[in-house]
Amino acid sequence: MLGGLLAAGAAGLPGLMQRGIAEEIRKRGKQVCFIWLDGGISQFESWDPKPDSPFAGPFRSIPTSVPGVHVSELMPHTAKLMDRISVVRSMSTKDPSHSTGVARVQRGDPVNRGVDYPFLGSAMAKLLGAPDNGLPPYISIKPGNGGFIWQEAGFLGAKYGALALGDGKPPIHIRRPEDLTAETDAARNTLRRLADARFKSARRESEVDAWESSFSNAEKLMARKELFDETRLRPEDVQRYGTHPLGRHLLLARHLLEAGVQFVKVTSFHWDSHGDHFNTARQMVPSIDQPFAALVTDLEASGLLDHVVVVMMSEFGRTPAINSRLGRDHWPDAWSLAITGGGIGRGRIIGKTTDDGAWVAESPFDVGHLFHTIFSAVGVDPKKAKYRNQGQPLPIAHDECGPITGLLA
Amino acid sequence: MADAPTFDSAKAHLAPEPLAHNRQLFRARYSFDGALIAAAGVDKRIHVWEEATRRHYTLPGHATWVACLIFHPAEARLFTADYNGAVHAWDAIKEGSPPLFTITADRDNTRALAITPDGAHLLSGGDDTVVRMWDAKSGGAVREMRGHAGPVFSIAVHPDGKHLVSGDLFGRVIQWDLSSGKIVREFDAKALHTRKEDFIADVGGVRCMTFNPDGSVLALGGLSEAESNAFCPGKPLVLVYDWASGAKKTELRYGFKSDGPVNGLRFLQDGVLAGWGEHLNAPTQLVFWKLDAPEPFHKVAADSAYDLDLHPDGTRLLAPVFKALGPGGNGARKEHREKYVAPGALLTVCNLFAEAPKPPK
Predict the structure, then answer these.
(1) Check: CATH 3.40.720.10 for A30-395?
(2) Which has the closest alpha carbon to B168: B129, B203, B136?
């Protein structure tokens, strides 16, 4: 219902319809859209161009809707709505490696307490509680295979894991076979639960939790299969977001957010441009600029942007120095991310890099600060809220950090 | 007076003491008489050296990276093009002087320039996919040639002066009739392009092309079988075509592990083809092929190169080569902050004759 209303609202119907949508939206809890550009988008070719730096690439910097703020020419759509997003240009983290950096950043780089902290989506599922809308709280849209990624839940337990939609496709077998009646299907599931309970009695809880959560989430989506019905997509939306995977996946993310999914992660791989960076950046950066701008525009038009925190980031940025293959390597020392939505101020540029773009000049922030900020934006006080792991209280975010106050609305 | 050394491509070796610059250079070319070397890259300026004296001076340059440059075939006139699409014409021997004229040759990056053998027409190609012909004396527009669906990466004029060949990102190679601007035929170089299902960018393209002196053979260079669009590792590949029939004569490979594209090709006076390119994880070599064998018969260890030119006298090759000047690779580098500088370049010369014997100790 709400998805339909939102589609109509986004199409521009004013007045009563908009107020009806607003009423629906007010009833919602906070949501998050987490866009993960795996491998590391270059800050020089996106949010923090330094055209006069010895490390500059060949692309122009262009003005944005925020006076005095420029971004790369590869982001023309986002430049026009810069007043509706904020950018942190002074992220400074420690890990130059993907293998450890991805998990560390998506876990908020907590102090090592000998346990695996949850990824952000699992943390939100735990801290906000699953909404009562019959949808999985944490859906991950990614290239390649789907499945249930229980590992992201860390010590919280498998039930807080991510339901992954491989290439944005629903879990296989989401549609009940036509020759299987609803009654037979229910009986079949009852039998499965009994078997699970017996199996669970003699095994570690997490193994069975993972399977139960997987079935549970698939069941929830079976009831909402219209979310994946591509015939319902408006052709103009498909064009605005782009027909490439990032475009399709961010359009699906919008539909899932409209339907009420609490945390939607969209992952794009292959941003690790060690070779031929400037030829690939010319293609890759526009491929996120277009759908990101469309998503922010649509969420704002429907009123959802006041309830959804949208974050776009990587595990680090890319080196100022250009290597022998005309690539940029990993650079955690100074990089940028974009954030907007509920609880987040808009049109703000936080932090500053040196004139050559290599180092943070003002206000360095680690990912712990970002997690404090996101938790604060969704109404969870990271100074008060605690996890409990086997009775042990654990901070939900790096306890030596605090929120990036300049970002909070 | 000592005798001139005897040409022998099998004895090719790097000359000592290359010219150096503290910023990366992507293109380097000899002037028509071999007296000057011009080079350009990330610092936006045009660098000119007198080869005999090594005297260096600059021309004012561009607003962004210089993507390519080419000398006039009979005058000290130099044409340079940048990532914003601007092409400047210069009097290469007038230090610091402004451009003779400027043209906008592309909406974005002008990646390739060529000039007809009589010096009358300049050709350009780039990201907006259009190949354009210009009056080389005035900069006036002569003709637009449309047929590519992707960025034009390289162009070359046939020695007969009547035809042009252009190659794009997708490995489409078009032969144009220069007098009419019409497409004559196409060559299939799709092997130089890769887009796997999980890629988020196209990789490769026809990175370089050259004719042998009589125009009977066309060689195209680039990268095949790219494994990802991130590191862009793949297999360097050269495709060789018979010009008369259009048939592919052979494919030339490095024959040992290498992972970057071939960026420069030149035919030598003995019919040998020289090629040089990039590497990231594997050693780069300047290699020499005889066209009757797919693997090189001679190779010279070297660093990554982005272009390749042959001196007019045929005795040496020139390439702008990567040179690290500080700590590179993945950060964090805060502890090396003072030493962290942008890389530089060496203008490396490869002599095509036997190395002079070392004097006795």
Answers:
(1) yes
(2) B129
